[in-house]
Amino acid sequence: MQRIYLDHNATTPVDPAVLEAMLPFLSGEFGNASSIHSFGQRARAAVETAREQVAALINARPQEIVFTSGGTESDNHAIFGVAQALPARPGMHLITSSVEHEAVLNSCQALEKLGIAATYVPVSREGVIDPRDIRKAIRLETVLITVMHANNELGTVQPLEEIGRVAGEQKIAFHTDAVQSVGKIPVDVQALHLDLLSLSGHKLYAPKGAGAIFIKSGTRIRQLLFGGHHQRGFRPGTENVAGIVGLGKAAELAHLSLGEDAARIAALRDRLEQGLLARIPDSHANAATAPRTPNTSNITFAGIEGEALVIALDLRGLACSTGAACSSGAVEPSHVLTAIGLPAAEARATLRFSLGRHTTAAEIDTALEMIPAGVTQLRQLSPTYKREASARH
User: Fold this and answer.
1) 171 backbone φψ class: left, alpha, beta (φ>0; ψ -120 to 50)
2) Annotated active-site residue in 45, 325, 326, 344
3) Distance between CA atoms of 72 and 364, rounded to whole angstroms?
4) For residues 21, 25, 177 and 11, what is the CA-based torsion angle, rounded to 10 degrees?
C-alpha cells in the first residue's frame, strides 16, 4: 500500500543529510563536549558549529543560541525565566494570545496560579491578532508579551514585526514560539524585534529531543534548570551532541533551500486545498485568506467526525490530523478553531493537512482521490449530515 504523509506539522522525517551528519556522534565521536581532551574538544567543536548554523538561520549571534530538548522546554524557559528574573511585585502581568500552543498557554496558566496576571488577546476569524489589541492590553506591570509566529493548526502567521515594535516602545520582553515557522518561512529576530524565540528540531527535519532558544544579549532571564555551568549557565546538563549536530545541519539545509522549498510546497498545498473544496460539497478552508505558512491547510468537512476521518484515511494509506498532535485524544474541540469562531460541531469536523519537503505532486493527486472518498463514506453513515444537507438544499 502506498503511504502518504501529510502531517509534517506534527513531526518531520529526519533528512538523510541530517542523519549522515549525526552518525559519527552516535558511534566513534562519543566525547562529552565539556571534557578538555581531544574526544571532548571534537564534540565541542561540533556543538559550536551547530550553534553558528542555527544562529545564521534566524539572523542571531551564535552566543545568543542555547540548545534545549525542544520547543516545550524553550517556551517554558522563556516564560518562566523572564517572569522569575524580576522581583515579585503585586500586579505583575503578561500578554499572550488565545491560539497559542499548550506549551505557552499552560505555562501562562501556571504563572497565574502563582499570582501573575495574564491577558489572552483574541484573534480574528482568520486567526490573526490585531497589534492594537496588544497595545490596549499593556499595563504598567506588564513584563512579557509572548505571541506565536505561525499557528500549528491553521498555519496563520502573526504580525510580529508590529507587535515587536509595540513591545520595544514599552521596554517589555517579547517572546515568540517559532516552532512552526522556522525552516518554513524567513525568520529574522532583528527585523521582528524579538528578545526570545523558541524552535524545535523535529519540525524541520532534525531528530526529536533537540531544540533551541534564542536569548537576545542583555535580556533579563533566569535559568530553568540547575546543575553545572553548561551553555553559560543558561541550560545545565551534558549536551545531546548528536541531536544538536542534527539540528545544526537541518538549519543549514533550511537556510539554503527555504525559498525554493516554500514556493514548491505552497503550490502543492493550494492544489490540494482547491481540489478538495471543488470535489467535496459543504466544505471550507479555515484562515485561507490570512498570511499562512506554505505547507498548511485546515479544512472543515460538514457532517463528519474528524477523528473518524483520520482513521478512515489512515486505513487507506494517508496520514493527517485533526489538529495539534499534542491534543490527540482530547474530548474538547480545538481551542484554536473555537477561538476563530467555529461552532464545536464544525471544529470536530476539521482536518489539518501539512505538507513537507518530500511531498510530491503524485501524492497530492492520490490524496485528491482518497480524501473525497473517505468523506463520502462517512457522510453516508451520518444521519445528522443527511438531515442537515436536506435542510440546506
Assistant:
1) left
2) 326
3) 31
4) 70
Enclosing H/E stretch for 161? helix 160-169
Cα angle 81, 101, 6 (rounded to 5 degrees) comes to 135
**Grid cell listed for 393:** 438544499
79's grid cell: 516564560
Per DSSP, the residues of 6-46 read -BTTT--PPPHHHHHHHGGGGTT----TT-SSHHHHHHHHH
Rg (CA), the chain: 22
Distances (CA, A) of 90 to 86, 170, 336, 348: 12, 19, 31, 40
Sequence-separated (6 or more) residues with CB below 8 Å from residue 44: 33, 34
Q: What is the pTM of this model?
A: 0.94
> Would you say 299 and 286 are in contact if contact means Cβ atoms under 8 Å apart?
yes
Burial of residue 275 (CB within 10 Å: 0-12, 13-18, 19+) is: middle
Q: How deeply is 81 buried, as exposed, middle or buried, from its count of CB atoms within 10 A (0-12, 13-18, 19+)? A: buried
DSSP state of 325: G
Cα 321 to Cα 329: distance, rounded to the nearest angstrom: 11
Structural domains present in the chain: 4-11+258-392 (3.90.1150.10), 16-254 (3.40.640.10)
Question: 3-class SS at 334?
Answer: coil
Ordered per-residue pLDDT tens for the chain, 393 residues: 789 999 999 999 999 999 999 999 999 999 888 889 998 899 999 999 999 999 999 999 999 999 999 999 999 999 999 999 988 788 899 999 999 999 999 999 999 999 999 999 999 999 999 999 999 999 999 999 999 999 999 999 999 999 999 999 999 999 999 999 999 999 999 999 999 999 999 999 999 999 999 999 999 999 888 888 788 878 888 899 999 999 999 999 999 999 999 999 999 999 999 999 999 999 999 999 999 999 999 999 999 999 999 999 999 999 999 965 555 555 689 999 999 999 999 999 999 999 999 999 999 999 999 999 999 999 998 777 765 665 555
326 is catalytic: yes
| Closest by CA position to 80, among listed 42, 41, 116 | 116
